[in-house]
Amino acid sequence: MQNNIERIHFDSMNTCNMCMMELENVYETLVLSPEEIDLLDMPKRTFTVHFPVHMDSGETKMFIGHRVQYNDARGPTKGGIRYHPELDLDGLKNLAFLMAIKCALVNIPFGGSKGGIIVDTKKISRGELERITRAYVREVSDIMGPFKDIPAPDAYTDERVMVWILDEFERIRGRHVPAIVTGKPIELGGSQVRRISTALGGVYVLEEALQTIEQEMRSPCVAIQGFGNVGRNAAKILHEKGYRICAISDSSGGIRNVNGIDILKLMEHKEQTGSVLGFPDTTEISNEELLVSDCDILIPAALSKQIGKDNAADIKAKIILELANAPTTLEASRLLAEMGIMVIPDILANAGGVVVSYFEWIQNLNQDYWKEEKVLERLKYTMTTAFANTHNICADEKCSMRKAALQFAVRSILHAERLRGNL
Ligand SMILES: NC(=O)C1=CN([C@@H]2O[C@H](COP(=O)(O)OP(=O)(O)OC[C@H]3O[C@@H](n4cnc5c(N)ncnc54)[C@H](OP(=O)(O)O)[C@@H]3O)[C@@H](O)[C@H]2O)C=CC1
Ligand SMILES: O=C(O)CCC(=O)C(=O)O
């Protein structure tokens, strides 16, 4: 086997260095062959598109979009679409890899993908957002399909964007194809619960995790970074369950009140002002301060690489529930494990989103729509089973949850590759 540095030089075209480094943590335990490592280290396909869009000003601007399909041994690739001014292909490869791992861990028949457009949604109009989305779909429609690659919402995309993706794709195909995208509004084939499923799935695994620790936490104090779809719904669900939400932030900064923040009122405040700042009876803190603030449970629910080697040692939470994707660098993950902090990894913690996306896809294909109770019951079963599978490996091997989850998922992906005769 080549060492890491040799490999980076050897296949520099489309490697995913972050994926390689993450996978190295399980190579030894799983005793993988060089062929297996080669297969896992690189995405299957990477697309970059460059397309013009007419802006409101009358000028035409060029945009760049990507879609990475990492592995499809277990089924069509599945993963969100992210709009962000700092979107980069390497980050997307890692996110697509995490999708493949996540789907294998919760045992749904999908591979993993991720995509997006380099754009700041706060600096464009609604009309421009729609034209950019539709233009991107025209560029990538050939590689999408209900049995090929199925997008969904991610940071700075929402139901409205999913509807434009659906509509543009159906215009191109000339027929209805509801299963082309998930995260749609219920009126257009969306599933009950999908709006809150990422947060709710996270709460299910958090409560399983709390049962495994000896020390009882009474009215735990929770700090949440991010107040978008995932952060806001996690805050609301936990608030309703009696947790104290002591600190919360968005891109403009954070607020803190150790006695707990009224989340419903904060949601109204954010709706009216566009920010969590200025909410009554709270002290302003920075996003950096939020991450290292006194709390029992820390929930990163915004962007990647928020917890790194520079701030990990200062974290005071006893549990970190990673609702964002890749919020912790690998270096920081190792440090947190040494500090005895329980980290419920993204690939488990935020899988509730794709699990209900899978339910939405099934409902679309069968044209048979489920009641809320059925979705809730199946989501809970899927998440608690994935938690138990991960926890059992942790107990047997005395390893972190991240390593355990990764092992479980890699085994499952390689098994599918072997069955297909690819290994
Ligand atoms: N949506 C889903 O179903 C899933 C999402 N995820 C992951 O969850 C995370 C959040 O996604 P989602 O909630 O959908 O995205 P949204 O776009 O709905 O929300 C993003 C939130 O993050 C905040 N934010 C952005 N930059 C920063 C920053 N530097 N510091 C603090 N907060 C910041 C935003 O602030 P502001 O409101 O001011 O813009 C916003 O509140 C992402 O990592 C995503 O990949 C994972 C699985 C599924
Ligand atoms: O719902 C989905 O299909 C994917 C959601 C997503 O992008 C994620 O889990 O990171």
List the helices and strands and how they pair.
Blueprint: H1 4-10, H2 17-30, H3 34-41, E1 45-54, E2 60-71, E3 77-83, H4 89-105, E4 111-117, H5 126-140, E5 149-153, H6 159-173, H7 194-212, E6 221-225, H8 229-240, E7 244-250, E8 253-256, H9 263-273, E9 283-285, H10 287-291, E10 297-300, E11 319-321, H11 330-338, E12 342-344, H12 346-349, H13 352-366, H14 372-397, H15 401-419
Helix pairs in contact: 2-15, 4-15, 5-6, 7-8, 7-13, 7-14, 13-14, 14-15
2-oxoglutaric acid is lined by residues 78-80, 99, 102, 152, 154, 182-183, 325, 350, 353-354, 357.
Helix count equals 15
Remind me, CATH topology of the largest domain? Answer: Rossmann fold
How are strands sequenced across the largest beta sheet?
Answer: 9-8-7-6-10-11-12
- The secondary structure category is alpha/beta
How does the major sheet shape up?
7 strands, mixed
Strand content: 15-25%
Share of helical residues: 40-55%
CATH architecture of the largest domain: 3-Layer(aba) Sandwich
The number of domains: 3
CA-based shape: globular
The radius of gyration is 21 Å
CATH class of the largest domain: Alpha Beta
Mean pLDDT: 95
Poorly predicted residue ranges: 1-11
- Please write the string of helix (H) and strand (E) elements: HHHEEEHEHEHHEHEEHEHEEHEHHHH
Ligand types: NADPH dihydro-nicotinamide-adenine-dinucleotide phosphate, 2-oxoglutaric acid
Measured distance between first and last alpha carbons: 16 Å
The fourth-level CATH homologous superfamily of the largest domain is NAD(P)-binding Rossmann-like Domain
Binding site for substrate: 78, 102, 357
GO biological process, one term: L-glutamate catabolic process
Keywords: NAD, Nucleotide-binding, Oxidoreductase
Organism: Methanolobus profundi
